[in-house]
Structure formats: structure tokens, C-alpha cells
Task: structure prediction
Amino acid sequence: MTDAVAQGGADSDTRAGRNRLMQRLATRFAALVVVVITLGSLVFAIVSAIWLYTSSLERAEATARASLEAARPTLTSTLWKYDYTSLRQLVGGLEGIPEIGAIQVRTSDGETLGTAFDTATADFEMAIRETNFEGKELLIGQLSARLDRAAVQARIEHLLLVQGAIFIGLIIVIYLLVRWTFRRLVNTPLRGLTDFVLRSDLLTTGPELRISDGPGGGALEFQQLERAINDQLRDHRRDWQELEEYKASLEDKVAERTRQLEAAQDEIVRNEKLAALGALVAGVAHELNTPIGNGLTAASTASETVRAAERELAEGTLTKSRLEDTLASTREASDIITSTLGRARELVGNFKQVAVDRQSENRRQFALNEVIEETLATLQPSMKKTPYRVETDLTVGLSIDGYPGPLGQVITNLCDNAVRHGFDGRDTGRVLITSAATDDDQVRIQVRDDGQGIPDAHLKKIFEPFFTTKLGAGGSGLGMSIVHRLVTQVMGGRIDVESHPGEGSVFTIVLPINAPIAAEPDSTREE
Result:
């Protein structure tokens, strides 16, 4: 229930965030449109203002010039008659025209009427002439006029203010209209598209996109977008379905291949176990052959000596010295038989203990040096056939609560690895096994050989399953992998290797005196 409420709150926050985003998008688009229109309008307004000012001045000048030309006859008549009173009234009337700012009339006798100003700033100059009775044209006055530019500017500014207010109102209306139109025709389809894209079942079983049914969705562009998305979505869903089918099929294939690989690996391990067992049996037979053969020879000799004495006794030819020789020979044979049978019993005991440890892999308290010596005893038959030797320097009295069977397998595999790989192609070789206690309730076992060493490229892979340099020559590639698993997973220790080409190899095994309780031996491991 709490999760559902939290999910609902998260969805609500997501929708609110999308709405705010759409509003900002509409606002920005409308603002952009307004800015573009405003910039264009400002350029147009500046050009229009310049044109309006220029044309207004031209119209004012034309109006003033027409007014002055219309008043020329009256001005000429009043000046000719020296009717300065009427002239002043006429000048005052002309100055009342909005376009005319000031008029100055200078008579021929030097009198100035109207507004005095610097005639150099005059916009108009008009010479007033009259023809006398002799038909001669005389200059009777000079009129200078100046436009009222301030009035023209005031009218233009007023017009621009009115136009500016109208323009601002239009901009506001355009902004609101564009924003509303964008939200209706663009935001609504986009919101529907966003909600659709964020669906959790988009690529699986969700519905198809339908934005053309809503406001603004009927636009051709949105219809094309809807068709393109739905087509692509159908392709994606078909591909997703195929991928799911491939995934299920691949999982089945991987599981089947894994089972086959595990079965093959188990078969290899079993074969290696049988090979190791065969080697162990052969070694036992070889080692027992000598003491049993010696005992059998001694027993046969003693039997023949006794039968000869019996014949002499029956014939009455048995002498005291002969009897003493027979008894001495029999006693010697008995000693030989006792010694050889004791040796055989010792060998059988060693082989039996090693076999029991490897078959049961039970946890027990054992002496480290004894287990290693017993293991090496099983290797003696095969080592005797080679020019190589195995030596030990073991600390006596180191007791471990752990798994002697896996430890024996580790020692066997490391010695076998030295013979097969370290001494390959060499006439001599020496393996030295040492043991010592550490300061942290652990023991250190080192298996050192003076062989040809391990290349750097192989050191990183030496504990990987199926890695071997003897592929096709009897090597399964599992020996060192099994060593690593037995040391780390069964006995709860660690194993490291140091080697340099031509300088031999050193395998260092560090084991706890008390193996971890969680470490359980794997009965499928190679023996």
C-alpha cells in the first residue's frame, strides 16, 4: 500500500514537472515570436519615423510656401502703398499658420516688420517687386520666413506615441494568441507523445500512439510523426519478441551445453581418478613384489632344508652338526620372512591410509609430515623409473585438523607437474618439499623444483581449467586447477607460484591449522 502511494506521488510529481516544462516551452516560443516581431517592427518604425519626419517637413514647407505665394499680391499692394498697419496685420495672420514659425518683412526704406530673427536661418526668401508707371520693376521689400519645426516634431511625436501604444497592445495580443495557439496545437500533442514515450510497457504490450485524435494532432506533420513512431514501435516490438524467444532458446542451449560440459568434465575427472588408482595399484604391486618375493625365497629354502633333514633323520644319517645347520638356516629364513612380511605390512598400511584418505576425504586430525611421507611412498614406484628424485625437509610435530586426502592429492599433482613439465627433456631433476609453521596459526608448505621454469605468459593461466601445454599428449589441463580448488575451497588456504624461465618453480601453500568449518570437500574432484 505504501509503495503504491509512493508510486502515485512520484507519477504526480512527474506529470507536474512535464506540465511545467510544456508551459515554459510555450512561453519561450511565444516570447521568441514576440521578439522577432518586435525587432522587425522596430526597424520598420525607425524607417517610418524618418520617412514621416521628412515627409512632414516637406508638406509643411509646401504648405508654407503656398500660403506665402497666395499672400504675395496683398503684400505687394500694402508695401506699394506703404500701408504698414495692414502689412503688420497680414504678417501676423501669416505667422498664425501652424507650419510657419516666424516671418520678417524688410521694406525698401529699411523698416522691419514681423518677428526679428537671423535671416541666415530662414527657410524661405521672397523678393517683393512692383512695376512703376514707367513700366520699370522695382524691389519694394524682402520677406524671410522660417518653418515651425518644433510644432512639426510635436505632431510627429504624438503620432508615434499613439502608434507605439497600439503596437504594444498588438504585441501583447499576439503574445497571448501565439502562446495559447502553441499550447493547444503543439503542447497538447507533445504532452501526449511524452506520456506515451515514458510508458513502462512501451516496447512490450502498450497501445499504439494516438495523438492525431486530440487538439492539434490533426496537423499533417503530427500525423506523419504518429505513423512513423507506430511503424518503428511495431518493428521494435517484433524485434523484442524475437529477442525474448532467442533469449529463452539461448538459456536452454546454455543450460544444455553446461550440462554436457559438466558431464564431460566429470568423465575426465573419473578417468583421471581411474588412472591415478591404476598407478597406485601398480605401485603397490611393485613395492610388495620385492619383500614378498624375498619371503617366498626364504620360505622355499627353509622348506627344502627341513625336508633334507627329515630324510637324513629317517635314514639315520642325521648328525648333530647337520641338525644345528638346519636349525640355523631355518631360523635365518624365519627372520627373513618376518622382516619381509613386516615391510609388506608397513607398505600396505601406508597405501591403505592414503587410499582411505583419498576415497573418503574425511576431516581428521593428522600429522603433516606423515601424510606427505605416505603420499611420497605411493609415488616411489613411478619415480624409480625416472632419473628424478623427491626430497623432503619437513618439520616434525606439525598437526593439522583438516583433510589429508586432498592434501595428498595436491602433493601428488605438484610432483607430477614438475616431472611432466619442469623436467621435460632433462636428464636430472630434483623436487624439494618443505614445511614450517608460521606465526599466525598456519603452516607453509613449499614444493620447489629446479626445472625449466614457467613462462610469464603461462603463469597467469596456470590455475585455469583445461589449460595445458601438453594438449594431445596426455594432459587434461585439470591438474593445477584441481590443486587450486582443493587448497582454496576444501582446505581453506591459498596457493601462490613463483617462477622464472630456466630457474625452476616454487609453489607455496599456506594452510590454516584448523580448516574452516564451511569448507566441504568435493567428491567429484580428481584423485
Remarks:
- The two ends are 57 Å apart (CA to CA).
